[in-house]
Amino acid sequence: MITAELRKFAWNDRDVDVDDDGFILQPELWDATLALVLAQTDGVNELSEAHWKIIHYVRAYFREHGAVPTVRAMCSESQISLRGFYELFPAGPIRGACRIAGLPKPSGCV
After folding, report:
1. Which BP terms in the Gene Ontology apply to this protein (predicted)?
2. How far is CA 41 from CA 35, 65, 73, in A?
3. pTM
4. Mean pLDDT value of segment 68-94
5. Could you point out which of 3, 18, 27, 62 has its C-alpha 20 to 30 Å from the C-alpha of 9?
6. How far apart are CA 69 and CA 97, in angstroms?
7. 12 pLDDT tier (thresholds 50, 70, 90)
8. Which residues contact 6 (CB under 8 A, 6 or more apart)?
9. Which residues are catalytic?
């Protein structure tokens, strides 16, 4: 398991660097298996279809715009309420979704 204090962890015969908040610093290493490892650090033991819909949306949005979508856009796109987002991503809708999606820490995340 990774914690915010741990800055590196072994995964799939590689060392993965993370920042103090657990965001991976090598996004090119991200894949579905690593997503599950990252999710487990937030207490999410399985990624549902709803998780994957949001993860793929956030990654596509980031590729296209160079930034993460707003919570409002994520709720609108996924048809999931804000409360539902917190149930899916206990670390917070933006923080949790971006961390699991292998994206950099959004500038607005504290």
Report:
1. tRNA wobble position uridine thiolation
2. 10, 27, 25
3. 0.85
4. 93
5. 62
6. 11
7. confident
8. 18
9. 109
57-66 own/partner pairs: CB under 8 Å, 24+ apart? 58/97, 58/98, 58/101, 58/103, 59/101, 59/102, 59/103, 62/101, 62/103
Domains of the chain: 49-100 (1.10.10.370)
Tell me how far apart the alpha carbons of residues 43 and 22 are, in angstroms, rounded to a whole number: 13
List the end-to-end C-alpha distance of the chain, in Å, as a whole number. 22
* Residue in this structure with the two tokens 């660097």, named with its chain if needed: 17
- Report the distance separating Cα 18 and Cα 9, nearest Å: 8
Task: Kindly state the tokens that stand for 37.
Answer: 């490892």
Cα–Cα–Cα angle for 23, 57, 48, rounded to 5 degrees: 80
